[in-house]
Design a protein that fits this description.
By secondary structure, this protein is an alpha+beta fold. The chain has 3 domains: about 1-130, 6 Propeller (Neuraminidase), CATH 2.120.10; about 145-225; about 230-490, Alpha/Beta hydrolase fold, catalytic domain (Rossmann fold), CATH 3.40.50. It has helices spanning about 220-225, 280-290, 310, 320-335, 350-360, 380-385, 390-395, 405-410, 435-450, 465-470, 470-490, and strands spanning about 15-20, 30, 40-45, 50-55, 65-75, 80, 85-95, 100-105, 115-120, 130, 135-145, 150-155, 160-165, 170-175, 180-185, 190-200, 200-210, 210-215, 235-240, 240-250, 260-265, 295-300, 340-350, 370, 420-425, 455-460. Strands 19-20-22-21-23-24-25-26 form an 8-stranded mixed beta sheet, sandwiched between helices. A 4-stranded antiparallel beta sheet has the order 3-4-5-6, with no helix packed on it. It has a 4-stranded antiparallel beta sheet with strand order 7-8-9-10, with no helix packed on it. The longest helix is centred in the last third of the chain and has 18 residues, at about 470-490.
């Protein structure tokens, strides 16, 4: 189900309408007329009600952070609140028998806690928190015709299928494996349909039948038969903050004894996570390996998939904690003998861009850096981004009350230290991390240092250029990145 903290949101308010008749004279009927945004509606099984979530603080900067679930009577338009209080609750899905509602819940004003999956009685009572005890995040869920709930749980680099029975209040795994599910649906007799990414294939449709996972499509097979796909290897290690999970990919043509240049990649979020087969990064990691680089990435503290305490470890300390975890992983990987510690490149996007800039302002170990759509000045980000509350929540302060904590945690403060050749990549229509962030860092490095620095601006693109931008721009981004690596690091 969609989390309320999405890459962007519609600027056009939504109302709900219902068509009650089948005749050619049918006309839409408006059910709501208040100053609020409504999320996707869901019919009750008896057709008499509509379940939806709507904003409850419409005048706020980010009204979509505070949602509650409502039931609307189709005939009268009467609205009944089913949830309220300190949590944002959204994405309702009624069970086929109408007895239960599945939905998601997150604390209002707290951005570094896993989303919880709720199942409650149709009147809003008898609430169960399905994934509380297991302490893992849910991304998608769907009811079966028999009334059990299929869901996905993210854990340690995998997103796997689970089942929940509301009658017995029991949660159990549906299948084990090394893969990541993006979407799931449930049919009769325990049949599951899922979009699945594996280390060897960016995505196909799979079905789970009688406990056996079967590939149902082969959209990518022809292409994959023509290219090299390198294996993904897991690497678990200890950092000063505790246990961390990482992965590495060796370059195409790698032979025993070879030491390749290293491409370190850092994820965004900051509470996102990567794994064995993350679809959004699959092609980029394989591209770097094809161009002669050993690839390393990890999930430092703050990442999802390891529980609430792990995720909150980053609170009010975005840079130092993650840097300790990341650099510890780099050293462990170098110790395996596959990569050359004198030829290392670093890159990342969004929070990964922040960390790229943070690391090169605190270390000279990398020969080249590509920072993408990153946050570099937290104070100005607060004033220009569409998610200002992210910063006040993460750092427990407003910029006018404690500017020091904002500035001390901003890579821009330390920009004059940068000695690593830096390529900045940013989109002109990025409302999540506005382009002024890159403009500031570019200007400071250019004026305060003799370090090579270049900035690429992509028109018509938003925050997700790398995954949903124009094809020509996406190719350009990858090409420019590796050419910058090659120029200063050398494949």
């Amino acid at each position: 189900m969609a989390h309320p903290l999405s890459t962007g949101h519609s600027l056009r308010r939504r109302t709900l309408r219902s068509d009650l008749a089948e005749s050619s004279e049918a006309k839409p009927k408006r059910l709501t007329a208040i100053d609020a945004d409504y999320a996707a509606p869901r019919w009750s099984p008896d057709g008499e009600s509509i379940y939806t979530a709507r904003t409850t603080i419409p005048e706020g900067d980010e009204p979509w952070r505070a949602l509650n679930i409502f039931r609307l009577d189709v005939e009268s338009g009467a609205e009944e609140a089913l949830t309220e209080g300190e949590y944002s609750v959204y994405a309702p899905e009624p069970s086929p028998d109408g007895k239960w509602i599945a939905c998601e819940r997150s604390p209002i004003g707290i951005t570094d806690m896993p989303t919880r999956l709720l199942v409650m009685a149709a009147d809003g009572s008898e609430t169960r928190i399905v994934n509380q005890a297991i302490d893992r995040e849910t991304f998608d869920y769907a009811w079966s015709p028999e009334g059990t709930l299929a869901l996905t749980l993210e854990s340690e680099g995998k997103i796997l299928p689970w089942r929940y029975d509301p009658e017995s209040d029991s949660l159990s795994p549906a299948h084990e494996g090394i893969y990541e599910i993006e979407q799931i649906d449930s049919g009769r007799g325990g049949l599951l349909a899922m979009t699945v990414s594996t280390p060897g294939n960016p995505q196909e449709l799979y079905v789970l039948v009688d406990g056996e996972l079967k590939e149902a499509t082969n959209f990518n097979h022809a292409l994959l038969d023509e290219v090299f796909v390198q294996d993904v290897h897991e690497l678990r290690y200890e950092s000063p903050n505790g246990a961390v999970q990482g992965w590495y990919i060796l370059p195409v043509g790698h032979e025993a004894g070879d030491k390749a240049p290293l491409a370190l990649n850092i994820h965004g979020g900051p509470h996102a996570a990567w794994g064995f087969s993350t679809k959004s990064m699959w092609h980029e990691w394989q591209f770097h390996a094809a161009r002669g680089y050993a690839v390393f990435y990890c999930n430092p503290h703050g990442s999802g998939g390891y529980g609430e305490a792990f995720e909150r470890k980053l609170h009010a300390a975005w840079g130092p904690v993650a840097m300790d975890d990341i650099m510890a992983g780099v050293d462990v990987f170098l110790g395996l003998g596959f990569a050359d510690g004198e030829r290392m490149a670093i890159t990342g996007g969004s929070y990964g861009g922040y960390m790229t800039a943070w690391i090169i302002t605190h270390s000279d170990r990398f020969k080249s850096a590509v920072s993408q759509r990153g946050v570099y000045n937290i104070s100005s980000f607060y004033g220009t981004s569409d998610v200002p509350l992210l910063m006040s929540n993460e750092f427990d302060a407003e910029p006018w009350d404690d500017h020091d904590v904002y500035w001390d945690n901003s890579p821009l403060k330390y920009a004059a230290r940068i000695k690593t050749p830096l390529l900045l990549i940013h989109s002109e229509n990025d409302f999540r991390v506005p382009i002024e962030q890159a403009e500031q860092l570019f200007a400071w490095v250019r004026r305060a240092t003799d370090t090579p620095v270049k900035m690429l601006r992509y028109p018509r693109e938003g925050h997700e250029l790398s995954s949903s931008g124009e094809p020509g721009h996406r190719i350009s981004r990858l090409t420019e990145m590796v050419e910058w690596f090659d120029r200063f690091t050398g494949a």
